[in-house]
C-alpha cells in the first residue's frame, strides 16, 4: 500500500502578527501526520523553529520557506496531487471526508489573512470546517484527524531524543542521551 503524502500550504503569514499561529500550524501538521509545510512567506525564524522539532521529538517533517503559493499549487497538481482549501466556506467537511480519505497526494491550504479568490478557483475542494469563524489550526487538526487512515494520536515518532510516557498523573519524559549526543555532533 502506498503511503499518503500530505503537505500543508500556509498562506498569508504576517511575520510579526502570525508567528505563533504559523508555528502552531506546522506543529499540528507534523503531530497529526502531514509530511511537511510550505510557507508562502519569508520567515527564517519559523523555519528554524520547526526544523528543530524533528531531531528532538522524532520523525521527519520538512518546511519550505518563502514559496510562491500558485507555483507550489500548480507543481503539486502537475505531479498528480489534489488541493483542498480549508475555510468556513465550501462543502462541509463531513460531506466530503470520505473522498478526501482516498487521496494519496493531498495539499491542505490554510490562510491567515484574507485568502485570494484564485485559491478558491484553483482548489479541487473548498472545504468548510464548520460554518463559523475559527482558527486555521483547529481546521487543520480536525481535517487531519478525520482523513487519517489510523488514529493520528497514537502515532509514534522514531528516532526521537525525547519521548513522553503517558501517565494518569504527573509527567515523564525519557531522554535518549545517545541520540542527543549523536545529533549534537552533527551540528
UniProtKB/TrEMBL annotation:
Catalytic reaction list: cytidine(56) in tRNA + S-adenosyl-L-methionine = 2'-O-methylcytidine(56) in tRNA + S-adenosyl-L-homocysteine + H(+)
Q: Kindly list the biological process annotations in GO that this record carries.
A: tRNA nucleoside ribose methylation
CC terms in the record's Gene Ontology section: cytoplasm
Q: Where in the cell is it found?
A: Cytoplasm
Look up the EC number in the record and give it: 2.1.1.206
Q: Which residues does the annotation say bind S-adenosyl-L-methionine?
A: 86, 111-115, 129-136
Q: Does the keyword Cell membrane apply?
A: no
One protein family per Pfam: Trm56
Keyword list (alphabetical) reads: Cytoplasm, Methyltransferase, S-adenosyl-L-methionine, Transferase, tRNA processing
SUPFAM superfamilies to which the protein is assigned, alphabetical: alpha/beta knot (SSF75217)
Q: Give an example GO molecular function.
A: tRNA (cytidine(56)-2'-O)-methyltransferase activity
Q: Which domain of life is it from?
A: Archaea
Q: What class of enzyme is it?
A: transferase
Q: Does the keyword Transferase apply?
A: yes
- Tell me which PANTHER family the record gives: TRNA (CYTIDINE(56)-2'-O)-METHYLTRANSFERASE
Protein family per UniProt: Belongs to the aTrm56 family.
| Assembly and oligomerization | Homodimer.
Q: What does this protein do?
A: Specifically catalyzes the AdoMet-dependent 2'-O-ribose methylation of cytidine at position 56 in tRNAs.
Q: What is this protein called?
A: tRNA (cytidine(56)-2'-O)-methyltransferase
